[in-house]
Amino acid sequence: MLIINGKILTMTGKPVECGYVRTEGKVITEVGTMSALDKRHKGEEVLDVDGAWVMPGLIEAHAHIGICEEKWGAIGDDCNEQTDPVTPALRAVDAVNAMDPAFHDAIKAGITSVMTGPGSANVVGGQFVFMKTQGRCVDNMTVLFPAAMKAALGENPKTIYGDQGKCPATRMGAAALLRRTLLEAVQYRKDKERGRLDREDFDKEPWMPVLQRVIPMKVHAHRADDILTAIRIAKEFNIDITIDHGTEAHLVVDEVKASGFPVIVGTDLTSRSKLEVQNMNFKTNKILAEAGVLIAVTTDHPVALIQYLPLCAGLAVKEGLPMEEGLKAITINPAKICRVDQRVGTLEAGKDADIAIFTGNPMEVFTKTLYTIIDGQIIYNGMKDDDEFTLPPVSAGNDIPKAVHAENE
After folding, report:
1. Which pLDDT score, from 0 to 100, does residue 39 have?
2. Fewest C-beta in 10 Å: which of 55, 110, 174, 241?
3. Is there a contact between 85 and 161 (Cβ–Cβ < 8 Å)?
4. Which residues sit opposite 111 in a β-bridge?
């Protein structure tokens, strides 16, 4: 495919005001100015976008799409295993329904990949997956699994289990459970390395990539004290975390900056449904970004609908986040935070051919999606009235890409 005459936002530098993107198979092969384009393009599908914005496909860094399904209520809600506060062995890939209509909405909004997984009922919820938004088989849609281990502090776990008369009934209880679980995992790792184990432990093995810092622990934390607890525990065990939601992160911005951990902010496009989100404000994004904290914007779908991801970024821009940073917060930044920036998040040769084409700035409410391209195929054509999707050929592969040690990447 050859996309021509577009305003190309590579997310690696200044926009190319009149440029092209060339793809071959599932990969981007060239990005450049129209003046430098080799006019020979025999056999290529040429897409003249006539000044439209051409961007990397948008990325949602924290959602429950496919797991907490729309339409189906309790029947389609597989988000939280509320029978035990510590469930590290749960795998998002076993719960995602690729037929969830929300994937359709995501594609229409130019969102080509998502990080999805368990909710925040449990102190340890299980393993997230990073996946494309188009397909029928989750195994073939997966970019990285495991991609993160979910943990949660604050109101959700203490309310759910406190009401059952179980631990955690307090914030102290939640922190203690998380510490105990991590301490047991550390001891298990030592025993394994020393050859002292008779067999692998199903609940301990999922912690190994976290302890090796191959993947982060993804910590649900709204209130400032919960954010600081997450940072404290991460330092104690020398692990990486992402701070998810970070509603009051702007109140402890110096500590967040010093930690070096990124923040996935939001969703701010919802009501103040509980006490720990009383300081919710789109200005959080600006304050963190100005301090040098790596941020991404989230809808936390279905808390806010996933198709409003670019709108959430736009509202952050309205409250002072620079325009370029708003676009980064839904492209390259979430790719970095989710550790998949070697494949998605920018328009560069060698990256996945995941491309979103808009009539203008996607953060503006009147902007329309013209095309959504995933793995080099036009999946959504906004020029058609029938709103049809093109399904890709069925892949013969079933292997799920694994997280690997950093030194082997």
Report:
1. 73
2. 241
3. yes
4. 58
